[in-house]
Amino acid sequence: MRVLIADDHDLLRDTLIAFLGAEEGIELGSAATFDEAVRRIEEDAPYDLVLLDYKMPGMDGLDGLRRALTLQGGQRVALISGQATREIAEEALSVGAAGFVPKTLPAKSLVNAVRFMAMGEQYAPIDFMTAPEKAETHPLVDKLTPRELQVLEGLSEGKSNKEIARDLDLTEPTIKLHMKTLYRKLEVNNRTQAAIIAREEKLF
């Protein structure tokens, strides 16, 4: 079985080669960019499976996958990624990828996945493909700490600093410090403007 591993991270590529190379009957090639992978596919003896990193130089996401699938009369090509979403994995499989392999996959599972895909099957880990998608958070929420959000919520309810301090079991000077940070992050000058933004953005 011949496998080409194309990934721009030297450590990860070497680790994959070490894991797979320890298995009997697997010959390995490697590449650090998409263009280098294309050259290896066109010039080397045929590979049973090509593993392409979704984010490596020249890959251009799924466009690189589509191109690789057409080389040498058709390749078995799988994506490996540490960042791709389930949506990207599903699209990759739909355009003909041999599989999708998260970089978090345990070594033993990776070896099994490679053998599975090289034999002509399509692979994607069940837990990754069925895990609930993380809900998107509001950009403003990402800017603020949990405590700042609590202060902003109290402020948007029209509460005074004293009331917010009592609700959160904090001192008034602490609340004033949080207010100051809030104004800077929200780019406003006073509590009324901050409350308006909170309501307009439907934060609460």
Biggest sheet layout = 5 strands, parallel
How many strands?
Answer: 5
Order of helices and strands: EHEHEHEHEHHHHHHH
The first-level CATH class name of the largest domain: Alpha Beta
Describe this structure in words.
The protein is α/β, with parallel strands linked by helices and 204 residues long. The protein has two domains: 2-130, Response regulator (Rossmann fold, 3-Layer(aba) Sandwich); 139-200, Winged helix-like DNA-binding domain superfamily/Winged helix DNA-binding domain (Arc Repressor Mutant, subunit A, Orthogonal Bundle), CATH 1.10.10. It has eleven helices and five strands; from the N terminus they run βαβαβαβαβααααααα. It has helices at 10-21, 34-43, 62-70, 86-94, 107-118, 126-130, 139-143, 146-156, 161-168, 172-186, 191-200, and strands at 2-6, 27-31, 49-53, 77-81, 99-102. The protein has a five-stranded parallel sheet, with helices on both faces. β4, α4 (86-94) and β5 (99-102) form a beta-alpha-beta unit. The radius of gyration is 25 Å and the shape is elongated.
